[in-house]
Amino acid sequence: MSDGTGVANRLVPLLERVLGGPLPVRLRGWDGSEAGPEGAPLVFVHSRRAIRRLLWQPNELGLGRAYVAGELDVDDDLYQVLRTVTPVMQGNPARRQLSSEDRREMMKTAVLLGAVGPQPKPPAEEVVLTGEKHSKERDRAAISHHYDVGNRFYELVLGPSMVYSCAYWASDDPRYTLEEAQRDKLELICRKLGLRPGMRLLDVGCGWGSLVLHAARHHGVTAVGVTLSEEQAEYARKRVAEAGLEKQVEIRLQDYRDVADGPYDAIASVGMAEHVGAEVYGTYARQLSGLLRPGGRLLNHQITRRGPERTGPSFIQAYVFPDGDLLPLATIVEQLEEAGLEVRDVESLREHYSRTLRAWVNNLEKHWDQCVELTSPGRARVWRLFMASSAVSFELGRISVHQVLAVKPHPNGRSEMPATRGAFTSVD
């Protein structure tokens, strides 16, 4: 239809009100009509229910719910769609709220399309947590929501390395694999921490055990890994046993706040601090500082945000990292130093993370049918949207990831740190 009465033609002004700017994609409605910029990425609106969701949640969350439910989809490259939509939605952090006029016009459109009705139930993959925020019980539930979805699912998405954090792409050779990049990331961490045989390493948020296994095998340390995920702990213990490293590596189902057997020579926190929460980040920093011996090092690898904190309903909060927070780099450095640590090195791996995420999305799409069978169609769509949108946000510079290396100085100020960065910032 091209007479202006088709579904797509009516949806364009509605979505422009939701986005707060000109529609950067082309729409195809459930009646086959199309509208929007010629040559722009094509988005399908399969159902009136998608419009009803936007009436109740005219924001990122409403769009995300419709995508997870399969009511919205993309015909073109998902990255291209996200690269066009993200700047419109996030370009102005102080974007105005919908006015009364906006809402009236949206309602008129919904009436014409037969989309008015009660608020649809959110997809089953959406999480609602109860209890005090960042209590140990609630944090355990948040971690379980994200990680206890089946180890086989993560094997398919992450690949053999089973590392769920930014890889370190030390080569541009097209034959260089994700597994090699993750191996080099683990080695980079071990070098920054100055690991040597006989040292004690604590890995906070150890995941499936890849770092503690690498450190024990290649650097001769005794390692403790802690996680709140039962499935991760079970998987990591099995890997430790298969490697014959039970005397060197211990995996605990334990909150980082309950670790009390310091001092450690080194502590790694890789992709875990995003879960900690802004309200208790000082507690996190003091706990890790208290577990280090004088001269001991902390490697804190964490996604950071640039610009002001976003407000309003968030797809990531509802479906991926409930209660998680992205902090500015300056806040992280300040909190670590207030806890008695001295920050000695900061490295941004922003471009490395976008490449890592694209590799994970490629794995997910390659094994799509298996991933759906292991979880659900909605869960697979959550991970696809989350990882692709995160890749775009890294590429646009809206978020970054930093490795912050800190040391706990001796009372006399001695740090035991090498004189130059070259001693620990490269891998062979």
What does the model show?
With 428 residues, the chain is of the alpha/beta class. The chain folds into 2 domains: 7-112, no CATH class; 136-423, Rossmann fold, CATH 3.40.50. Helices cover 43% and strands 15% of the residues. It has 16 helices and 11 strands. It has helices spanning 7-19, 48-56, 60-68, 78-90, 100-112, 136-147, 151-158, 178-192, 210-219, 230-242, 281-291, 315-319, 329-338, 350-366, 368-374, 377-395; strands at 26-28, 34-35, 42-45, 72-74, 200-204, 222-227, 249-253, 264-270, 292-305, 342-348, 399-407. The strands form 2 sheets. It has a 7-stranded mixed sheet with strand order 7-6-5-8-9-11-10. A 4-stranded mixed sheet has the order 2-1-3-4. Strand 8, helix 11 (281-291) and strand 9 (292-305) form a beta-alpha-beta unit. Helix 1 runs antiparallel to helix 5.
